[in-house]
Amino acid sequence: MNDDVSRNLVVFRLKGFDEPVMASAPTQAEDAVEQAWANIRQQHKVRGSAVSAVYSEWQPSAADRKFMAKHFRKAECTYSFARPAPGEWERAFAEARAVMAETQEARQEEVLPVLWSTSSPRAGLLDALPHQPLVPGRLSVALAVVSRTPQGKIGMQHITRHQHEQMGTPPLEDLFGVGYQSLARGLKFEVRRSGEDTLVSVARENLMAASALALPDLYAQLTQHLGAGELLVGLPCPDEMYIARAESGLAATIREQVLGSPYETTELVPSVLRLGPGGMELLAERDR
Q1: Do 79 and 60 touch, CB atoms closer than 8 A?
Q2: What does the longest C-alpha to C-alpha distance in the chain come to?
Q3: Please, which domain of life does this record's source organism belong to (predicted)?
């Protein structure tokens, strides 16, 4: 379910495709489904006759229903939220947000990015996982299904290449996009200032905060608090991240805390990195 009520998620079941494909369009647009289909048609080079079912998060407008009747003649259409009358969108959005919040609270599993150090004792497993480099030869990101048991314990099942094939081998960019969206939910940037120095800590109630290092827009988000230039990032464990400007007096403190981290080595070895507009560099790792 899409968390942004201003965007209508539309899912198409296509003949010959093992998995459904999806796109989004402005929720209030009278042609939201038609816009979403235009994106799918361009991306996958398919015709309307290939559509066997359509799910629109919001009930299609009269214009969209007419469009679907013409182009998806045999397709079944379902939706979750009724389309409100003109002038009632704010009320409908508020009700939808409440439903989404309840759904999120009840959710026990999510796909999340996981950081992997090539120096980790577990690094040999990385060959069996679809992954992308963050620092070539030193640090990568893969995906895992992370679940929380009723007792509060965390379980993690890494997504393997075989499982990726069973999914129909969707583009890795799409698969990682799902993980990044899951991670971003509940991610918080806490800013503390001491004199001229600023420390940003990244926290996430459902853990894995350090994986925010892989987010494509992380540097842009951090510069809102720290300004442009070189940043020093400390990852003392998979669930914590601390950032300061590279020339800040706090940079040495972050480095000391990471290299002296008491956390057990998992997929990630506690690491210190430099992050800037040109990318990232691994500066140091704790002795394993």
Answers
A1: yes
A2: 66
A3: Bacteria
